[in-house]
Design goal:
Blueprint (H helix, E strand, L loop, with lengths): L2 E7 L28 H7 L10 E5 L3 H10 L6 E5 L5 H12 L6 E6 L3 E2 L2 H15 L4 E7 L9 E7 L6 E7 L4 H10 L2 E11 H11 L1 H12 L2 E3 L2 E3 L2 H5 L6 H6 L5 E6 L3 E2 L4 H7 L8 E3 L2 E4 L5 E4 L4 E4 L4 E5 L4 E5 L6 H10 L10 E4 L2 E9 L2 E8 L7 E3 L3 E9 L2 E5 L2 E5 L4 E4 L5 E4 L6 E9 L8 E4 L7
Parallel strand pairs: 1-2, 1-4, 2-3, 3-11, 6-12, 14-16, 15-17, 16-18
Antiparallel strand pairs: 4-9, 5-13, 6-9, 7-8, 7-9, 8-12, 10-11, 18-19, 20-21, 21-22, 22-29, 23-30, 24-27, 24-29, 25-26, 25-28
Helix pairs in contact: 3-6, 3-7, 6-7
Length: 471
Amino acid sequence: MKIVAAVLSGGTGSRLWPLSRELTPKQFLPLAASNHTLLQETLLRLEGIVSETPIIVCNGEHRFIVAEQLREINIHNSQIILEPEGKNTAPAVAVAALHALQDEDVILLVLPADHKIGNTKNFHDSIQIAVEYAALDYLVTFGITADKPETGYGYIQAGQSLAQNKVFKVDKFIEKPSKEKAEEYLKSGNYYWNSGMFVFKASRYLEELEKFAPTMLEAVKRAYSDEKQDLDFIRLNPETFAQCPANSIDYAVMEHTENAVVVPSSCQWSDIGSWSALWESEKQDTDGNVTIGDVLTSDVKNSYLRAEERMLVAVGLEDIVVVETPDAILVTHKNKSQQVKKIVEHLNHHDRAEAYSHKRVYRPWGSYETLIEGPKYKVKRITVKPGASLSLQSHHHRSEHWVVVTGVAEVTNGENVFTLKHDESTYIPTQTKHRLRNPGNIMLELIEVQSGEYLGEDDIVRYEDNYGRVV
């Protein structure tokens, strides 16, 4: 039976602010001492055990980031399903199961896109055991062997052994415990951290969902039956999907089914749910520090220090997290890093852009970054990928100057179409139709100077677009 990976990529990772933000959450960042993002690492570690094209379920706003990151690791003809809104994991997996059941039943390997696995061999061994039991109609989850009384994870209580302590019936799923309870679980030896990873037949999951959450399954089926193909993406019907109840796999199915089993795994797993968890999962120096970027320390111990753009200097600190980005700096005690989520909620409440996006914003054609802005002016650095093109557009309130720094630009400026090279420029008046395209084979980089009474990103009228955005 085929094994298909269903990767869930809908989280926002707010506890890892200011690096993780709503528009570019943690799964799309290279956090785990790697040149690859967490999403890419999730897919790359399946090499040798899953050969089928993966199914990715993600937020519609992230579709081009997902597609580009898959392309970067040579995954083509991907199946990217766009959720109109987040409904937690149970509906997302139901959509993946319906999509996977096109011709024949398959075994789904359900994985979050934002976890870290340190021991790939042990992980593969656990998957092989899980697949054997999924083929026997069990719904399998992975329990991570606990090595400390962790209060930030849910737990799974193992019951009857089915295979020489390699597979157990699930007695109970337990929410995040108190410190005292977590210490009891660790001593007992039959409690495991709940990893949020699952293996089961697509058909069996849908059968159990119909038994325990029929309203949810019916809404998902209707949303999927009305899906629309949009370029490389599958769009669910937003009206019918909005009627779907939100719930997790654990609550909707796993806590109710009589066929839940757990495979213990020592795969050095982490959900990287906070800065302290990331510090624990990374290699530390002799002082217990993790330093990334241009960081200088003196008398600093057991700290996580990360500089994205500027030099970061720390003196006389212990158990501290400092994360520097171009527009925000986080300083927190390591033991308080779970509370970062409250800061993000505060930023959202006050409609602060820092909660939503970075200064560098990714688009399907490349990216732009605001370098400086003031009353009636803004300066951006724009990069355009080879062969890519911005939409044909105009602006009501601003004019623009473009200066090419690297590469070649094909410019549409009103009725004129012409080429600009290094150190050449053009001026685009207000309300003039214009377009930028990279006809070359290297990245196009240019500086854009905007001037006008209003410089918001919503001052745009699109006439043509290659990426299906609103025109």
